[in-house]
Amino acid sequence: MFATSDIGGKLWRIGVWAVVGFFLLNLAGIIASVVVDSLGTSWFGTWLPDGFTTHWYSDAWSGFQLGGVLQVTLEVAGAVILGSAILGVPAAYALARREFPGKKLVMLLFVLPLIIPPFTYGIPLASVLYQFGLGGTLTGVILANLMPSVPFVIFILVPFIEQIDPRVEAAARVFGAGTWDLFRRVMVPLLMPGILAALVLVLVRTIGLFELTFLTAGPDNQTLVVALYYSVFAAGIRATQSIDSMAVIYMVTSLICLIVALRFVDPTQIVGRAKKAEAH
Amino acid sequence: MDTIPLIAPATPDRDSLKRRLERAGFDAITLLLLPAVLFVVVLFVYPALYGFWLSLHPMNGGGWLANYIAFFSDPYVYGTIITTLELAVPVTLVNLALSVPIALRVRHMRHQRLLTTLLVIPVTLGTVLTAQGMLNYFGPLGWFNRVLMSLHLIHMPVRLVHNFTGVFLSQIIGGFPFCFMLVLSYVTGIDPSLENAAAMLGARAAQRFRHIILPLLAAGLAITFCLAFVQAFSVFPSAVLVGAPSGPTRVIAIAAFHAAYEEYDYSMGSAIAIIMGFVQIIVVALVMWISSLFYRGPAGGGKG
Amino acid sequence: MTISAKNFRELRLDHMRRDFGGMNALRDITLTIKRGEFIALLGPSGCGKSTALNCLAGLLPLSGGSIWLDDTRIDHLKPEERGFGMVFQNYALFPHMSLRKNIGFGLKMQKRPQAEIDAKVEEALALVRLSKQADKLPGQISGGQQQRVAIARAIVVEPPLVLMDEPLSNLDAKLRLEMRAEIRRIHNMIGCSTIYVTHDQDEALSLADRIVVLRDGQMRQVGTPQELYARPAHADVAEFMGYRNILKAEAETEQNGRLTMRLGGAKLEGFAVEPGHGREVIAALRPEDLTPANDGPIAAAVVSAEYRGRDFYGLARTQEGLDLWFRSELSVQPGEQLRLGAPAERVLVYAGAAA
């Protein structure tokens, strides 16, 4: 940034970028080794596998009942998206537009599930779900995943709604729009970009959320990431390549969602928003 | 209303209550909050309280504190707190220490978004996939060891998985991007003209960092530490998959899981979960208290 | 102990250049600034004036040329090694330090003894009249006070040169006038050189010993406020200096610099400023110099007029559709037909577009 830099400054800069480079290189290595292994015939003690094949994918598909797992994952994700939209969007609107006593308390209520790691409250949550006979059911898995998603949607949407000029709503009222009309014809179209962004991020999170599904799912309603965990956990029962091909399927699914998400939102912004929200 | 009622409304109390509520901010729109609040109360607050209640009703009888007494009398169990702290504190510190200088450089970069996108990938992939990749990549026959051996830096493969190092590395791979993004957002919140002003007054890079950047960043770093720490403290999948879950990386989450799902003692499992949350709260409170000794306020240089 | 600028003779900019991604943000800036001089860098936004200041400060590297303080070349030095003072547009006060600490920061970095720091800070606080607020944080004082702290912080290290980047642009009109006087007073008192960036010609005219007009990264004119006001060297400088009527005309005869021009159907007389103009010329004149007169050469109809306290300022349009800004001591009404004229010595003639 400044006019000149001495050797110390240059070395420091090189050092910083070397750390970043080393990190990214190893990250690439980790991902590439999974992909390469999933395509290899057999790989043991050499730089690359002996040959390449795609049969591990068909193996994984039948061996892990991946079709069923994917179906559960999509069902859970879809239900969570729908649920968090229905519960989260109106709540975010209310929080963005109204001041009322106890607002800070409500904010705290919504922020806690986001900053407390799932494993900390997962076991009590699972015991409650089992208490009501929902443990191990698809409904239970959906409810568990919905839990952190609702506050997540709220905290993404509140700043988004706040930046929409409230006079737009006032104008609509002047032209005779009722509350429902206002919401449907004015607010929803204005909010659509924010809602979409929030929901795509919910999709990414739900696909990646391990702990809550792990603690609440039964054998028939595991999502992809939990199925992957069990197959890695029970390594040795199946060929590594088979596990890796499943990992690749998981990776591709979540990367597609991530790319879609990044088209809508800037990750640093989300963090910044969440940070602001916590400051309330 | 096109007529003015000459007689007072028939239900003055109800009407005035509604109006009073509206004046306080509780109108129809505020009520839109209700479903979400109920949902979080039912699925977060209630379970937390229920878990607490459950933990005080031990499955195998004994007093209401029996679970906690059992926890703190078995070194194999209460040792998990130490193990987890030994893992989570250094991991969080390393992640923070890496994040700050990198964020300070990256804020001047034009293609920030490319880097942040690359760094979101491990967050998206999650710990389970990272663990599986690490088993391949850092394994004794993996690329990492092969490269080091062919560079003659080592003669025998280094053990990087199925031990403490494995969990440590996986926590850095998963935790660093999270830390970095948070720190970057705090760093970009500092008005760059403050650093320029310090430079114009003769402060060298190290002095600018110590006198300007660090005090302004302190509150943000404390929050980042807390958020990253609670994540690291509740580590589970990587401690099982790339660690040594019965020994050196038997973290508290494993103990909780073991009690609840392998011994079917939800009461004990909840007790451990509550202890876990309690330790997190203590550390967070401690860090926030330390950071409160520093300046807290806007990091802008303009009108405050 | 008093705050006074370090001794030096002059600061020299020698063909200073700065490129931004292939664009010349700053071209060929050559200027000598004497000790104690107050220089204003004046120009519209995007003219490169802030770039020039940042290059001087060392916050931006030069792409070419050099900067000399007496016989020492300083353009390769880092900002912290140059020892200049700078007042930022947003003040850039350290929000976590009291005013006292803000002002003392530079001295602390120089590792001066604490007793000296305390004495100098006290003096600087008195100089900007903020002794009572010394222990407040910047967030707790008003914009004008923050501005004064920023100045005190810059001068307390006794820099040979103080750089000011539009320091008054965040203040309201009344405060701006007060601070203008304050800045000039402090400058005279400590005897440093000041380079002051602004887009406000009034500020530049009232503060500076010399004004440098920048446009598109080039120096267009350097001169005293009087020179710039009375005889801008180029049509664009004239326009910037308040010559609101910039009229295309055709030169007819010229004698000793006195020119007769054809402006549509009218004849206008003026003096050539730029030598070597062709037939196409530009006549520049201030609204206050164009007034109704019975023998005025230009016939126009009033379009609008506004009362400015002592006189009226208005817009009139000729039959050819040419718009003219004029001043009138008497009330004029829209639609009224007028004859307008200006003294020849107030009509400045520049080379036209083709030149």
Give the SSE layout.
The complex is a heterotrimer of chains A (280), B (304) and C (355).
Chain A: H1 7-39, H2 55-63, H3 66-97, H4 103-115, H5 118-131, H6 138-162, H7 166-174, H8 179-208, H9 211-216, H10 224-233, H11 240-264, H12 267-279
Chain B: H1 12-24, H2 33-55, H3 66-73, H4 75-106, H5 112-137, H6 143-150, H7 164-188, H8 192-200, H9 205-233, H10 237-241, H11 252-262, H12 266-292
Chain C: E1 10-20, E2 23-34, E3 38-42, H1 49-57, E4 64-69, E5 72-73, H2 79-82, E6 85-87, H3 99-109, H4 114-127, H5 143-155, E7 161-165, H6 173-190, E8 193-198, H7 201-207, E9 210-215, E10 218-223, H8 225-230, H9 235-240, E11 245-255, E12 258-263, E13 266-272, E14 280-285, E15 291-292, E16 298-307, E17 312-318, E18 323-328, E19 337-341, E20 348-351
Parallel strand pairs in C: 3-8, 3-9, 6-7, 7-8, 13-20
Antiparallel strand pairs in C: 1-2, 1-4, 4-5, 9-10, 11-12, 11-14, 12-13, 14-20, 15-19, 16-17, 16-19, 17-18
Helix pairs in contact in C: 3-4, 3-5, 4-5, 5-6
Characterise this structure:
The complex is a heterotrimer of chains A (280), B (304) and C (355). With 280 residues, chain A is mainly α. Chain A has two domains: 1-53, no CATH class; 55-279, MetI-like (MetI-like fold). Helices cover 78% and strands 0% of the residues of chain A. Chain A has twelve helices and no strands. Chain A has helices at 7-39, 55-63, 66-97, 103-115, 118-131, 138-162, 166-174, 179-208, 211-216, 224-233, 240-264, 267-279. In chain A, helix 2 packs across helix 11 and helix 8 (179-208) packs antiparallel against helix 11. Chain A is globular. Chain B is an all-alpha fold and 304 residues long. Chain B has a single domain (72-292), classed as MetI-like (MetI-like fold), CATH 1.10.3720. Chain B has twelve helices and no strands. Chain B has helices spanning 12-24, 33-55, 66-73, 75-106, 112-137, 143-150, 164-188, 192-200, 205-233, 237-241, 252-262, 266-292. In chain B, helix 7 packs across helix 9 (205-233). Chain B is globular and about 60 Å long. In chain B, 49% of the residues are buried. Chain C has two domains: 10-235, P-loop containing nucleotide triphosphate hydrolases (Rossmann fold), CATH 3.40.50.300; 242-351, Nucleic acid-binding proteins (OB fold (Dihydrolipoamide Acetyltransferase, E2P)). In chain C, a hairpin with a 2-residue loop joins strand 9 (210-215) and strand 10. In chain C, 25% of the residues lie in helices and 35% in strands. Chain C has helices at 49-57, 79-82, 99-109, 114-127, 143-155, 173-190, 201-207, 225-230, 235-240, and strands spanning 10-20, 23-34, 38-42, 64-69, 72-73, 85-87, 161-165, 193-198, 210-215, 218-223, 245-255, 258-263, 266-272, 280-285, 291-292, 298-307, 312-318, 323-328, 337-341, 348-351. Chain C has 355 residues and is of the alpha+beta class. Chains in contact: A-B, A-C, B-C. At the A-B interface, helix 1, helix 3, helix 4, helix 5 and helix 6 of A face helix 2, helix 4, helix 5, helix 6 and helix 7 of B.
